[in-house]
């Protein structure tokens, strides 16, 4: 049996649902000796800004149980070097590229997206409105549905490419943020970014991360991510979704698809094993074969929930 | 060529409660590994410890006729402890060799170099000593630690370099001279020895003191730097140290071997 791995996220068609998550896959090229870049559904590159960004002073990372905290501070080469040096090589490697972008202000977001414009070497633009590790930027928008809607609406005219909006899990109501992004003009939603956390060195009583708090990623966050994907899918049945958070195996991918994702992005797992994204494509096909699933897209939003009790049993 | 594969543990040799060597089946790493380079190793079940750990390739040897690489480890936390618990024969994920090695290609037999190590910082200097000895480049070792048990007095160092070229120092005087390793190194300079290049690995206070000595005397250095890493190949940007140029240096790909003048030691 041959499995159809193709997925459609609105206008964005991917050859399979395995993409890599921004900030965990560099500019893609660093992985060329471990993965055939053209075999992946898509590659979301490190968050790009209008000008190069140096990032936060160290220490920037620390390990946690089944995960890690990071406060890299969005260090990146800037949009010009990306377009001039990285994108041509990604294109040559036949990679499907998602340009992940961020800014400190609405004007900066818009300017960086304008610079990408309708570049045919880019498959989609992903707005990171959810980075917890910079003083301004990301989270200011991610935490406030009205500001988020306005930001997306302001950026929308700058490109005809599919617009992905990456949502923050550091909110009480992820559905409100999802709705605001879609009303502003988002074609696709991606969730989740990292969860704000704090680790303390109890000997020195100092935070283990220089920025004090950091973003938690890895298997530890997967149930939170799956829950949020499910909530957004329930509220917005027709909006395409990238599920992100702690994915390490084909079974994890299937879990996200059942919850409502159309595709996924693999993050921190690529640090532990740079070849994992390529392997997940093969493992997912095998899982589908074994389970008689002919089209991987048939898995999306197939969660069978049980009715919840209407009141507490007493 | 970077290898990403599972390699078997050939042997684990314990020195004391805290220190041990792990010999791994070398695969294609042994031939490629240069002194100062490192490997990323997954210890434990992949959930705890979650991330791989960076280890210097301490030496390239054979174990019962099988080509292997040696890692010298001090158990300081969940990752290093897990590595010591594996049974011989267990395959473990290894990525490497990675990073910029010590610069030695340009050295000549008429050059004299120094190796300065603190504690477990001796690890990358073993393979360096082996390669220098093979090429007949004279090298002096200065090796220190808090006490005798922190100094792994390996016989192979003395074999590679000559026993008279190995000098030791401990804070408590339990081995070698009482004092810091940077003190005995500074004393050698004071006595008139001059070095073409100084290779070093150790804790931050040692690096900081040594960087000051080398800069004051205008001696060239190469330090094998350490920093917590998630990936080891330049993508997480987690392992940076502040540079003098105001940038942050990515230790895994711009290093680990960098000239001490690249780093802003006042901000480390
Ligand atoms: C070191 C690191 C850097 C990251 N940088 C970015 C970034 O630049 N832009 C972004 O949108 N997300 C960034 N993320 C978030 C990831 O893309 C992803 O949403 C998150 O890590 C959860 O997925 P995971 O558990 O599979 O890692 C970063 C995550 C990590 C661990």
Order of helices and strands of chain A: EEEEEEHEHEHHEHEEEEEHEHEHH
Q: Give the count of helical stretches of chain B.
A: 7
Q: Count all strands of chain B and give the number.
A: 16
> What gyration radius of chain B follows from the Cα positions, in whole Å?
18 Å
User: Which topology of the largest domain in chain B does CATH recognise?
Assistant: Rossmann fold
Essential attributes:
heterodimer; A: 314 residues; alpha/beta; TIM Barrel; eight-stranded parallel beta barrel; four-stranded antiparallel beta sheet; globular; B: 268 residues; Elongation Factor Tu (Ef-tu), domain 3; Rossmann fold; seven-stranded antiparallel beta sheet; seven-stranded mixed beta sheet; 16 strands; 22% helix; binds flavin mononucleotide
Topology:
The complex is a heterodimer of chains A (314) and B (268).
Chain A: E1 7-9, E2 12-14, E3 18-20, E4 42-44, E5 61-64, E6 67-70, H1 79-92, E7 97-101, H2 106-116, E8 124-128, H3 138-142, H4 145-155, E9 163-166, H5 174-184, E10 188-191, E11 195-197, E12 200-201, E13 206-207, E14 214-217, H6 222-235, E15 241-244, H7 250-259, E16 263-266, H8 269-272, H9 276-290
Parallel strand pairs in A: 3-4, 3-16, 4-7, 7-8, 8-9, 9-10, 10-15, 15-16
Antiparallel strand pairs in A: 1-2, 5-6, 6-14, 11-14, 12-13
Chain B: E1 3-14, E2 19-25, H1 29-32, E3 38-41, E4 53-56, E5 59-63, E6 66-74, H2 78-85, E7 91-98, E8 113-118, H3 123-134, E9 139-145, H4 155-161, E10 166-170, E11 177-178, H5 181-190, E12 197-201, H6 204-217, E13 221-224, E14 240-242, E15 248-250, H7 251-254, E16 257-258
Helix pairs in contact in B: 3-4
Bound molecules: flavin mononucleotide.
């Amino acid at each position: 049996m041959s499995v159809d791995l193709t997925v459609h996220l609105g206008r964005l068609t991917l050859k399979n649902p395995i993409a890599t998550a921004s900030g965990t896959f560099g500019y893609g090229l660093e992985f060329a000796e471990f993965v055939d870049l053209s075999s992946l559904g898509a590659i979301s590159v490190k968050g790009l800004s209008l000008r190069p960004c140096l990032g936060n002073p160290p220490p920037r990372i620390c390990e946690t149980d089944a995960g890690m905290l990071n406060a890299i501070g969005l260090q990146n080469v800037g949009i010009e070097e990306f377009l001039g040096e990285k994108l041509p090589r990604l294109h040559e490697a036949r990679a499907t590229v998602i340009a992940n972008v961020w800014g400190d202000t609405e004007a900066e977001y818009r300017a960086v997206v304008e610079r990408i414009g309708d570049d045919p070497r880019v498959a989609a633009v992903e707005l990171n409105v959810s980075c917890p590790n910079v003083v301004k930027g990301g989270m200011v928008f991610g935490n406030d549905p009205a500001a988020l809607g306005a930001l997306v609406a302001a950026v929308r005219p700058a490109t005809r490419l599919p617009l992905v909006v990456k949502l923050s899990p550091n909110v009480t109501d992820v559905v409100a943020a999802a709705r605001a992004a879609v009303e502003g003009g988002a074609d696709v939603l991606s969730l989740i970014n990292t969860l704000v956390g704090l680790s303390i060195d109890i000997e020195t009583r100092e935070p283990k991360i220089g920025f004090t708090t950091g973003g938690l990623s890895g298997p530890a966050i997967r149930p939170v991510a799956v829950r949020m994907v499910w909530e957004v899918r329930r509220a917005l049945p027709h909006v395409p979704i990238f599920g992100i958070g702690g994915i390490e195996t084909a079974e994890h991918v299937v879990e996200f698809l059942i919850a409502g994702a159309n595709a996924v992005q693999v993050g921190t797992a690529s640090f532990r094993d740079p070849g994992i994204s390529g392997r997940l494509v093969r493992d997912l096909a095998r899982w589908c074969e074994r389970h008689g699933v002919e089209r991987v897209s048939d898995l999306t939003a197939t969660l069978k929930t049980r009715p919840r009790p209407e009141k507490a049993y007493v | 060529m970077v290898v990403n594969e599972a390699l078997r543990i050939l042997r684990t040799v314990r020195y004391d409660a805290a220190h041990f060597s792990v010999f791994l089946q070398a695969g294609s790493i042994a031939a490629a590994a240069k002194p100062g380079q490192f490997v990323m190793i997954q210890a434990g079940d992949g959930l705890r410890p979650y991330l791989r750990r960076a280890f210097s390739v301490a030496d390239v040897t054979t174990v019962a006729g099988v080509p292997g690489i040696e890692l010298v480890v001090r158990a300081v936390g969940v990752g290093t402890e897990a590595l010591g618990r594996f049974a011989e024969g267990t395959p473990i994920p290894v990525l490497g060799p990675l990073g910029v090695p010590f610069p030695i290609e340009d050295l000549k037999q008429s050059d004299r170099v120094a190796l300065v190590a603190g504690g477990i910082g001796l690890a990358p200097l073993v393979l360096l000593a082996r390669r220098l000895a093979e090429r007949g480049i004279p090298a002096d070792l200065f090796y220190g630690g808090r006490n005798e048990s922190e100094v792994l007095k390996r016989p192979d160092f003395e074999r590679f370099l000559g026993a008279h070229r190995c000098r030791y120092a401990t804070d408590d005087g339990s081995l070698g001279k009482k004092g810091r390793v940077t003190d005995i190194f500074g004393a050698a300079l004071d006595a008139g020895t001059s070095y073409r290049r100084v290779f070093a690995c150790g804790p931050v206070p040692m690096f900081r003191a040594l960087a000051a000595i080398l800069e004051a005397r205008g001696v060239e250095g190469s330090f094998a730097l350490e920093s917590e890493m998630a990936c080891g190949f330049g993508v997480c940007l987690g392992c940076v140290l502040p540079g003098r140029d105001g940038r942050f240096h990515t230790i895994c790909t711009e290093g680990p071997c960098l000239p001490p003048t690249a780093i802003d030691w006042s901000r480390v």
